[in-house]
Design a protein that fits this description.
The chain has about 220 residues and is an alpha+beta fold. The chain has 8 helices and 9 strands. Strands 4-9-5-6-7-8 form a 6-stranded antiparallel sheet. The chain has a 3-stranded antiparallel sheet with strand order 1-3-2. Helix 1 packs across helix 4.
């Protein structure tokens, strides 16, 4: 059995790695809200359990077994988010915090029943891919952020970073959700907003929020 704390660490390392290509002690500490010494101590345990490896003093990588364990909790988390949104009609800004708690107690049997009830969905409400029950086949990448998209590009929103409740509410108010197609009109200089055309309406999206919205674009 893997403890809830271990699952949190493995999931965090996985998310950081897929988002930026790697995970460091400092990044893990920031994401979990703990001190770097606490992360270092936990990493010693995870390393001795064969779940991570340390190529350098600061860098942390999942082993094959660690990755499988991380994907199992990621799958549960995203299935729970999808269930809460689809069945209980909770907003996409509400489901993440609830899933953080429930992901540690969901049994494999209930996980399978939820997946079947939902029709085995491939993505959660934020567009994050739901790993299959056999996680060895799962690869995950992030498309380009709107903050980096070329002017004139037509972009279909695929994924939205999901931990900032206020940001999700703001994006929802402007219909910026997975599946929506937008056109990048211009980038204002000096860190100004990214202007988007959303179904004929122009929206000035703050650059910080534009960096949280990811999609596939075409000229």
């Amino acid at each position: 059995m893997v403890s809830a704390a271990t699952e949190d660490y493995l999931k965090t390392i996985f998310l950081l790695t897929t988002r930026s290509g790697g995970a460091t002690v400092t990044e893990i500490a920031g994401r979990l809200g703990v001190s770097p010494p606490s992360v270092s101590a936990m990493c010693k345990r995870l390393s001795s359990d064969g779940l991570i490896e340390r190529p350098s003093r600061s860098e942390v990588r999942l082993t094959a077994e660690g990755r499988r364990a991380a994907l199992r909790v990621v799958r549960r988390h995203r299935l729970i988010e999808t269930f809460l949104a689809a069945v209980l009609d909770m907003g996409w800004d509400e489901v993440h915090e609830e899933a953080e708690e429930l992901e540690h107690v969901l049994s494999p049997r209930l996980e399978d029943r939820i997946a079947a009830y939902l029709g085995h969905p491939s993505v959660d409400p934020h567009g994050d891919p739901i790993p299959p029950s056999d996680p060895t086949t799962h690869d995950e990448t992030w498309p380009e952020a709107l903050s980096e998209a070329d002017v004139g590009s037509s972009v279909r929103i695929d994924r939205v970073e999901s931990t900032d409740v206020d940001a999700l509410r703001y994006l929802d108010e402007h219909d910026l959700r997975p599946g929506v197609r937008v056109v990048v009109v211009r980038h204002d200089p000096f860190g100004g907003p990214v202007w988007l055309d959303v179904d004929g309406e122009q929206i000035a999206l703050p650059r910080l929020l534009a960096s949280m919205v990811h999609g596939e674009g075409a000229p």
